[in-house]
Design a protein that fits this description.
Blueprint (H helix, E strand, L loop, with lengths): L14 E9 L4 H12 L3 E3 L6 E7 L4 H4 L10 E9 L6 H14 L6 E7 L4 H4 L5 E4 L8 H24 L27 H21 L3 H17 L3 H19 L40 E2 L2 E2 L16 H15 L6 H18 L2 H12 L8 H17 L3 H15 L9 H11 L21 H17 L3 H14 L6 H15 L9 E2 L5 E2 L24 E3 L43 E4 L17 E4 L3 E5 L1 E6 L2 E6 L11 E5 L6 E5 L18 E8 L3 E10 L7 E9 L10 E3 L2 H4 L9 E9 L8 H9 L11 H6 L11 H6 L7 E12 L1 H5 L2 E14 L2 E10 L5 E10 L5 E4 L6 E3 L4 E9 L19 H20 L2 E4 L4 E4 L2 H9 L8 H13 L28
Parallel strand pairs: 1-3, 1-4, 4-5, 5-6, 19-25
Antiparallel strand pairs: 2-3, 7-8, 9-10, 11-25, 12-13, 14-17, 15-16, 18-20, 20-23, 21-24, 22-23, 24-25, 26-27, 27-30, 28-29, 28-31, 31-32
């Protein structure tokens, strides 16, 4: 026997073997449909008996295996069922002849046979026959099962007659010697009359009768015959048949203890009849006692009913532990014979199935290890595949999953062996898939994101490579891309640099023909392969939800704020928003995934990350097209030709699973451009607000300049409302007058501003600061010996006058070494544009746009000395002013009713102005109730400002730089009056004023006070006070 039956199990010893084969040309589908119905009749209750017959069907059985039928009767083909197509009567003789030829193949062992003819109708089909059944078609054959039952009953009749014939003691008859095929030549010339020979014949016959009893459903009788055969065969050292008797004893005991079977088949066999049914509850109890029946109690019909003849001297049925011991002994006997390799292999398989039920895995592995090394003849590739597949299945049953996967992988490789003309790559791929659980490998990438890696990474990578290759040879590139993507995603940490390079190059070559997608791939057997998103290519270390730029952030009008509406987190046409400041530190979004409930346009970004690049910031933006709520829960990438949708909750180390953003109605978008250049100085307001644009300008003190601002609506909604406010920041300087002023009405007249339209907005910048109290500047003037008589300044001062900012040294340290007399002052302000329009305006939303203004103010004209002289009229006087030009340019000074005075750079001259005496009596005193102003200080400031404006209007001094063609008006004497003349509520203030001014600018060693009444009424001086600064 050369072809093993790897599906054999212990209970197969009680079955009758029936072969079902086609005769002639029969459609394969039709044949197996009938074969399935026939094989469903696997057990039949014998009429007028409690016995049950079990049938084992095969559609292919090697004739050489049939020759071992005397050795073990369950290997003998006792029944033949043939199926044929015959459409006409003239084909019937030929068909019937083929049936007889088929019978001759198993003729020596057949008990009975049947021929099922489909398609033949007429006179021939109407003739009653026992061995032939006619059916019009494969669909009209309702009586197939009934005919099979009748056929099995006929098999039982023959079986029972043979059992009775062999079991009956015929004195004087010579018992034939049963042999296996390879023994026949060894027994030629033996002494057939020797005692040793007769015992051999008796022992083999007892074993044969035990097989027949077991097939006939007489379990107890078979146990008795097996015990007797073991004793007889052991005495003559007939080891091959002794092993068969021990195996028969084990099989009968297994049938007794495990009525459900050991082959893992669904359902259980019917309970044995007669004496066994009463003790079915004890069958699984180890050591269950069974009385040994004396051979003399056996009759032709079985056990004698006279129980007094029973002798309880040992166990007939083996205990579960003894079953394994006897299997080991039988296998050891089989191992003595080279030609019994198949028998030995099948016995190992049967023992493993029993041990699997007993949950004795280690012992079962020993049997399997022995089966691996059993040397059979040269097996075909198909037989090798079957052998390794069964070994894998048995290892799986005993819990050796990795060992099972090992043999299944060998079977898969055997399917594509080079010696096979047409390799079975589909079968190879299917078997490789079945090995995955044994190597702790799953094709779901989510299983690899939980905890530590399980299994041997090197083996898993090898298996994945084989899956890629098998799927490619199958002609399924999408499957190859999916497995290669899975390999790269899950095994990235275990790949060397060269392996990573090789895998990525292979992936790129595959995806060039078939890009990787996020669709499920369904295999022919129904298995679905989930998509593999590249969450490690690139690796996202942190994710943050970014806020909108300051100029785009929408705000809710305070009067419309609700309890659940945040003023800092509305979302306008961008997915980047932070709606909870407390969670903003831990929420990050870098990419955006398509396919949300709302209509959403994702703006793609392309980047190239070099190998081992480290952390690289990437920002992606998306634009929602409708209002509502949108959930950002991942990002979409295309890497090496594989498209991936990566969810944030699947990213290791990122503690967020997305965020919900509110999308409000659309608002207009305002863009501003100015007539001034952009500033390198970035304003940092204390409120923390961001400035969208910064501009700068350089002005001389007292200069006025216009800032032209173009307001362009670059959005899609009309701009309907605009509010402009300003705020001075980061300065300690005191301003005189309005620093920034504008008329908004001219701009609003152009509203509503349609998309793409431009409106003009003009802002007047006026700088009026006081440079006279700057200590370093005063020291410079005194050190250079400025003449009190109005003579021009000496040349050394001209050399140290501060240049314009354009010529300022770049290095501040170099400037300080050369003597930096910088007296430039800085003013900074923020213009805020609050605008709205469109549907967002209806819902109460608006936007803010801020413009930062940086102004550098240089000193222009100083009045170094002020004095008065009487005029011809008592109502007038001459005001003498020593004027100093601190600029580097030639300028002219003019006053009301006076000629222009030309001053060169760094020059000081005196100018006389005839003015009317000032009358301050019209200015209000402090009210008695104190309700108009908050305090005396505020009242004093208001009065000083009013008197300063009065003095400035009387003098009307202005100056201009000729080379610049610029005219600067106002603020020259006004700043002097407000800060340093210290006006008081009575007319004495004018004299007090001039005392202080003169004291500032006289020589340190000669302090002179000049007093003169320049006011309209007469005055009396009660007290003079010198103030030292």
């Amino acid at each position: 026997m050369s072809v093993p039956d790897y599906m054999q199990c212990a209970e197969d010893h009680q079955t009758l073997l029936v072969v079902v084969q086609p005769v002639g040309l029969v459609p394969e589908e039709s044949f197996f449909r009938i074969y399935k119905r026939i094989s469903a009749v696997s057990q039949v209750n014998v009429r007028d008996s409690q016995r049950v017959l079990y049938i084992r069907y095969r559609h292919h059985y090697p004739p050489e295996n049939n020759e071992w039928g005397d050795f073990q009767t369950h290997r003998k083909v006792v029944g033949l069922i043939t199926i044929t197509d015959c459409s006409s009567a003239k084909d019937w003789p030929q068909t019937f002849e083929k049936f007889h030829l088929q019978k001759e193949m198993y003729g020596s062992t057949l008990y009975d046979s049947r021929l099922f003819v489909f398609g033949l109708q007429g006179e021939i089909a109407e003739q009653p026959r026992t061995d032939v059944a006619f059916y019009p078609s494969y669909d009209e054959c309702e009586t197939v099962e009934k005919r099979i039952e009748d056929f099995i009953e006929s098999l039982f009749i023959v079986l029972e007659s043979k059992r009775l014939d062999r079991a009956t003691d015929k004195s004087g008859d010579k018992i034939p010697l049963l042999c296996v095929p390879f023994e026949k030549k060894d027994f030629v010339g033996l002494d057939t009359d020797s005692r040793h020979y007769k015992k051999r014949c008796q022992g083999r016959m007892r074993k044969h009768v035990g097989d027949l009893c077991l097939q006939a459903g007489m379990l107890q009788d078979s146990l008795v015959h097996y015990h007797m055969a073991v004793e007889l065969l052991r005495s003559v050292n007939d080891f091959l048949w002794l092993g068969a008797a021990l195996e028969g004893l084990c099989s009968a005991s297994v049938i007794y203890h495990y009525p459900g079977g050991t082959g893992g088949k669904v359902g259980s066999r019917r309970a044995q009849g007669g004496s066994l049914s009463a003790e079915a509850g004890n069958r699984h109890r180890p050591g269950a006692q069974e009385v040994l029946i004396d051979p003399g109690a056996l009759t032709s019909n079985g056990i004698n009913a006279d129980t007094s003849a029973e002798i309880g001297r040992a166990k007939n049925c083996l205990s579960p532990e003894d079953i394994i011991d006897k299997y080991k002994e039988a296998i050891s006997y089989y191992g003595k014979y080279k030609n019994a390799g198949v028998i030995e292999l099948e016995a190992c398989v049967k023992a493993v199935r029993v041990l699997a039920i007993q949950k004795r895995s280690m012992e079962a592995s020993e049997f399997l290890q022995n089966a691996v090394y059993i040397n059979l003849r040269q097996l075909s590739e198909e037989e090798k595949i079957q052998r390794y597949s069964i070994l894998s299945e048995l290892y799986e049953r005993i819990g050796f999953h990795r060992k099972s996967a090992f043999f299944k992988r060998i079977a898969a490789m055997q399917c594509a062996a080079p010696s096979i003309p047409e390799p079975g790559w589909r079968a190879c791929y299917k078997l490789l898939l079945e090995t995955l659980p044994g190597y702790s490998l799953s094709l779901d990438p989510k299983d690899f994101s939980k905890g530590t890696h399980r299994g041997w990474a090197a083996v898993q990578m090898r298996l994945l490579h084989e899956l890629v290759y098998a799927s490619r040879r199958m002609g399924n590139p999408a499957l190859s891309v999916r497995h290669l993507s899975f390999l790269l995603q899950t095994m990235l940490d275990f790949l060397s640099d060269q392996e990573k390079k090789d895998v990525t190059q292979s992936l790129e070559s595959y995806t060039a023909k078939c890009p990787g997608t996020m669709e499920f791939i369904t295999l022919p057997d129904g298995l679905k392969l989930p998509p593999v998103p590249f969450t490690k290519l690139p690796i996202v270390r942190s994710v943050k939800l970014l806020n909108l730029p300051t100029s785009l952030r929408p705000h809710k009008m305070k009067s419309l704020l609700g309890q659940n509406v945040s003023t800092k987190s509305p979302f306008i046409y961008s997915p980047i928003i932070a709606h909870n400041r407390g969670e903003e530190r831990t929420k990050k979004i870098v990419y955006i995934i398509n396919g949300f409930i709302l209509e959403f346009e994702s703006l793609p970004a392309a980047l190239s990350l070099p190998a081992e690049s480290g952390l690289y910031p990437v920002t992606l933006v998306g634009v929602p097209q409708t209002t509502g709520q949108i959930t950002i829960n991942g990002y979409h990438t295309s890497v090496f030709g594989v498209f991936s949708d990566c969810l944030l909750d699947n990213l290791p180390g990122v503690k967020t699973n997305g965020c919900t953003v509110e999308v409000i109605p659309a608002l207009p978008r305002l863009q501003i451009s100015t007539s001034l250049p952009r500033s390198a100085h970035t304003l940092q307001p204390s409120s923390g607000d961001e400035i969208s644009t910064n501009v700068s300008v350089q002005l001389y003190n007292g200069e006025t300049q216009q800032l032209i601002i173009k307001l362009e609506n670059i959005g899609t909604e009309p701009l309907e409302t605009l509010e402009v406010t300003s705020k001075t920041v980061n300065t300690k300087e005191k301003l005189y007058g309005d620093f920034l002023s504008w008329k908004l009405e001219d701009t609003l007249s152009q509203f509503p501003l349609r998309p793409g339209k431009i409106a003009i907005f003009t802002v007047n910048i006026k700088v009026k600061l006081d440079f006279s109290c700057q200590e370093n500047l005063l020291q410079d003037l005194n050190d250079d010996g400025i003449s009190v008589s109005g003579l021009p300044l000496s040349s050394p001062f001209r050399q140290v006058v501060k240049p314009r900012v354009e010529a300022k040294p770049v290095n501040p340290q170099e400037s300080s070494k050369a003597g930096d007399f910088s007296h430039v002052k800085t003013l900074e302000a923020i213009l805020n544009f609050k605008y709205s329009g469109g549907p967002g305006h209806v819902e109460g939303y608006y936007r803010n746009l801020s413009l930062g203004l940086h102004v550098e103010v240089e000193p222009s004209v100083f009045f170094t000395r002020v004095s008065t002289l009487p005029a011809t009229s008592t109502r007038q006087c001459h005001l003498l002013l020593d004027v100093f030009n601190s600029t580097e340019h030639e300028l002219t000074i003019s006053a009301r009713n006076n000629e222009d005075l030309i001053l060169h750079a760094g020059e000081c001259q005196r100018m006389a102005i005839q003015v009317d005496k000032f009358n301050f009596e019209s200015f209000p005193e402090s009210p008695a109730d104190g309700t108009q102003f908050a305090n005396e200080k505020q009242l004093e400031e208001e009065r000083q400002q009013a008197k300063g404006l009065e003095i400035n209007s009387k003098l009307d001094i202005c100056w201009k730089i000729i080379s610049f063609h610029k005219y600067f008006v106002e603020g020259v004497l006004n700043q002097l009056v407000l800060e340093h003349l210290q006006l008081t509520p009575n007319p004495i203030i004018c004299i007090h004023l001039f005392f202080q001014i003169f004291f500032f600018f006289t020589h340190a060693d000669h302090r002179q006070l000049i007093c003169q009444n320049v006011c309209a009424p007469d005055i009396s001086i009660r007290r003079l006070k010198l103030v030292v600064f």
